[in-house]
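Request: Show me your protein:
***
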Amino acid sequence: MNLATYLGKQVLGVLAGYQQGKVVIHVCGVFIQADNSLRVYFPKGHSFSTGDLVTLHLDNRSGVDEFDAQISVYRASYKGRIISHEEDWVVITPRECQLIHGMSLVLDIREEGYQFPVDERPELPVPFTALQEMPEPEAKDAVNKVGVLITMANEQPHTTVLAFLSSVDDDIFIITFPGMFKSTLLKRNPHCFFAMDERAHYTFERAIEWNYTIVEGEAFRVPTDSPLYETIREEFIRKNPWEMGFFLQSDIEMYHIKRRQLVCSGSQGSVR
C-alpha cells in the first residue's frame, strides 16, 4: 500500500538530519509519490546533498481537537536517503518507515537489506531536573495538543509525536515509559529538540512558510515522588485529559526538556 492512501498526497513534515556534527531541522512541504518516495520542498532553502540521511515526521493531523486529541491519526517516522536535489527541492527514498494508527502498525516499509543500526552507546541515568516549582503554563499552546520530539539516534535522528505541556519559559514536559525507543535514546543522549505548530490556524501553503516553534534542549527526569511531579501531572492532564490513564502505570517517566535555545525551521543546533 502507498503512504498517500493514509496520509494524503500533500502533507507538512518536520525533517531532521546530521550535517558536520550539527542537527539541521526544517519544516517542509512533503509530496508523497506512488512508490513511497517523497518530493520535499524547503521554503527557505537547504544545504543537503545526494546520499544524505534524513528523518521526517509525517502525519495527517487535521488541527481539530476532537479528531486529533488521542493521537488516533496516521503518523510515521520516515527514515530516508536523499537521491537527488535541485534548488529548494529534494527527492527522498525510504530506508525504513513504520506507519502507525493509534497503537497499531499499518505499514512497515524497509529498503532491501536494511538493518537497524547497532547502538553501542551506554544507557546512563538521566539527571533529575533542578526545577523546584512548576513554571507558568504557556496559554497559547493550549490548543496545540501534540508536538514532535526529535532524539539523537545513530546515523539519523528519530522522530515521534507526543502530547506535551509547555511553559512561558519554553520548558517542555512529556511522559513516556522505560521500554520506549525515545526513552532509550534520551538515556544515551539527553540532547533533543521539540517542535510545536499551530496547524489549525494555517493553510498548507502558509504553514510551510511560517516558523514553527522548535525548542532545542536538554532532557531531565522529574522524580515521581516529588511535589513538582504532582503539580506538573495536574497541569498536564488539564491540557491533555486523554493522557490520564498513563499516569496510573507505576513505571511512567516524566521528562523536563530545559531550553538551550529556540530555533526555527532551517536553523541549526550543536550536537554534543
Remarks:
- The chain has one domain: 3-111+121-270.
- The mean pLDDT is 88.
- Residues 3-111+121-270 form a domain with the Pnp Oxidase; Chain A fold (CATH 2.30.110.10).
- The longest helix spans residues 227-239.
